[in-house]
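User: Structure tokens for both sequences below?

Assistant:
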Amino acid sequence: MTPQAIHFISIGGSAMHNLAIALQQQGHTITGSDDEIYEPSRTRLDERGLLPAEMGWFPERIHPELSCVILGMHARADNPELARAQELGIPVYSYPEYIYRQSQHKQRVVIAGSHGKTTITSMIMHVLNYHNRVFDYLVGAQVEGFETMVKLTPNAPLIVIEGDEYGSSPIDPQPKFMHYQPHIALISGIAWDHVNIYPTWEVYVDQFELLADAMPKGGILVFDETDDMLDVVGQKDRDDVAKLPYTAHPHQIRNGQTVLITKDGTEVPVLVFGEHNMKNMAGAMVVCDRIGITDAQFYEAISSFKGAAKRLEKRSETPELVVFRDFAHAPSKVEATTEAVKAQYPDRKLLAAVELHTYSSLNKNFLGQYRHKLAAADVPIVYFNTHTLAMKRLEPITPDDVKTAFDQPNLHVFTDTAELQAFLDSQRAQVGVMLLMSSGTFGGITNV
């Protein structure tokens, strides 16, 4: 491998900074720029000497000796560094384009879907790692046992990729998963999201249709057959593509412990729970079977899988109170996660709070998608920050708008972090489980 000089525009992104670190570990010379870098990206880049000395865009950092520029989604199309790279004729790639270019000789497994893709990817990675398989990967969360969220090496025969439907870069709006050209693709479910890019349900679904249509001859399409839309996608008229449906893995809950029930009746205790995770596990098992992992090997490994970071992550537990954090923010994820916790702890009073933090969740026209999604909670809470609305340049919403959309009489709505904190403190002795769902931080609350 010949070391290259590679510059990252918007190096602070979750996937971007992990790719930068992975390429540095391969011996490449990495530089980067960004206008804002948050934790944990900031510290991780700083520890490796990759943190830009100052924030902002500096066209002089783009020079003819660069092998290529990798362009992050959070840069703008008129970025001055991008303009300089184009002027000099330096190749510019989105990170999914770059991942594909470096993995054309590998077997490519892509996990897609509106929900569950991070967990399914993490499960497959955990099983392969447990059995000392050599593979590369790209995943959207930190996974125990893996130093980075990206690994890209010259010799690994296989790469497992979490492929999302979000745009690839500011100059390439097509979904990231379309760049990877998978040999095996799994679609976990379709529930409208990213309303700022896909303004209608139909346009959103079209992206997954494109993925299914793009499967190569001899490809394998794995899908959740209990998802109505996926049943249509999965049964498309492609005789040259193997279609492998799955449903939730048979399981039982006993005294707060979920156990898998195998085909021969053997019970396998697992550390994750919820109907959605049983589907995730079944999908991961189908994929693992196709890349050489036997059922026995899968069960042996999966029993120690703790979940990806912020996916039903247990933050604290006492005899009186269990606290979970979860990345769930889209309507389908909020519903599935809330129902999973209630099913796991049926005799406990459940407080479930969701922060409206994304473009979709804060869009007044999208709010109705949350109707009854917190129905399983005994104490349902919604928090949103008016400053976030302003930052995203969205039309203002009010607590009454939220109450109308969720259509839940006992719903508590907060826009002030201190008031939310005080309410949570007052509930600690009243409930048995707290579930906090957000891709943000609830305004920075810490004492939960």
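Moving on to the next sequence.
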Amino acid sequence: MKKQKVVYRFFPYQGVELHAKKEIPFELKLSSRLLLDEICFNWNKERLEKEINSSIDAGNKEAFIGLSEKYRHYIWE
């Protein structure tokens, strides 16, 4: 059996150059996602605490019960 020969021919590209973007490392993506999740978690928890305190000050029992049900998800440890 004869060996097959491969011949490559180079034709220069005449179009516009394309520049590839550098990929962000996985560790950086993960750490930034975790940090953003923690910031959002803390902000939502503080907002609920303020709303619960204002409902206690106003004496609104229904609002307090509804907000405390939502707040339980933040302290379920």
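User: Anything stand out in the second?

Assistant: Residues 26-58 form the longest helix (33 residues).
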